[in-house]
Write a structure and sequence with these properties.
The structure holds two protein chains of two kinds. By secondary structure, chain A is mainly β. Chain A contains no helices and eleven strands. The termini of chain A are far apart. By secondary structure, chain B is an all-beta fold. The N and C termini of chain B lie far apart (41 Å). At the A-B interface, strand 5 and strand 10 of A face strand 4, strand 5 and strand 9 of B.
Chain lengths: 113, 112
């Protein structure tokens, strides 16, 4: 199984809402990532978890809060987002956080009204 | 940190022609260079990769070459087909970086 799943596929939320994105992999990977992707742009790294510990936070605003409950699950909690946060949010995993292939999920299309 | 430049940003070819996309990187410690294909509405998917101890790798119609001295690597697609139309991203990472750095992407259009 080389699949990374993400839920929901689409999410529309107001600026005062709280919502969560979920990501799951069962490949035994020990690194998991959150990316933000705007149209016609490359994925922009937000967070990296390595062995369930946050190893990289690319200066992401605190309205985005990641969580790694176990080695297979990754959540991204959203609160008080801005319209400019509307984007495709991609989750990825790799064997380690070093020089390994990243496997991407299909993404969650987020719209902030 | 690592910086990856990718060219061209758009590429249009006739079906059956070859397509070449080039990337340069800045960090000599980078030792892993994957290429990802992203179709509309999907996440990026690995199509081929190369490590720094290899100069060339081929998988059917797709090949990647690496020149460590010049710090550049290229994706070659031969006998292009309409289903090759997508956005292609190169990336570079090192064992200790903890992350990959992506190029800005190339939109490839294959005209039937």
């Amino acid at each position: 199984d080389t699949e990374v799943t993400q839920t929901p596929k689409h999410l529309v939320m107001g600026m005062t809402n709280k919502k969560s994105l979920k990501c799951e992999q069962h490949m035994g990977h020990r690194a998991m990532y959150w990316y933000k992707q705007k149209a016609k742009k490359p994925p922009e790294l937000m967070f990296v978890y390595s062995y369930e510990k946050l190893s990289i936070n690319e200066s992401v605003p605190s309205r985005f809060s990641p969580e790694c409950p176990n080695s297979s699950l990754l959540n991204l909690h959203l609160h008080a987002l801005q319209p400019e946060d509307s984007a495709l949010y991609l989750c990825a995993s790799s064997l380690t956080s070093g020089a390994d292939t990243q496997y991407f999920g299909p993404g969650t299309r987020l719209t902030v009204l | 940190g690592e910086n990856v430049e990718q060219h061209p940003s758009t590429l249009s070819v006739q079906e059956g022609d070859s397509a070449v996309i080039k990337c340069t990187y800045s960090d000599s410690a980078s030792n892993y260079f994957p290429w990802y294909k992203q179709e509309l509405g999907k996440g990026p998917q690995l199509i081929i990769d190369i490590r720094s101890n290899v100069g060339e790798k081929k998988d059917q119609r797709i090949a990647v070459t690496l020149n460590k001295t010049a710090k550049h690597f290229s994706l070659h697609i031969t006998e292009t087909q309409p289903e090759d139309s997508a956005v292609y991203f190169c990336a570079a990472s090192s064992t200790n970086a903890g992350k990959s750095t992506f190029g800005d992407g190339t939109t490839l259009t294959v005209k039937p």
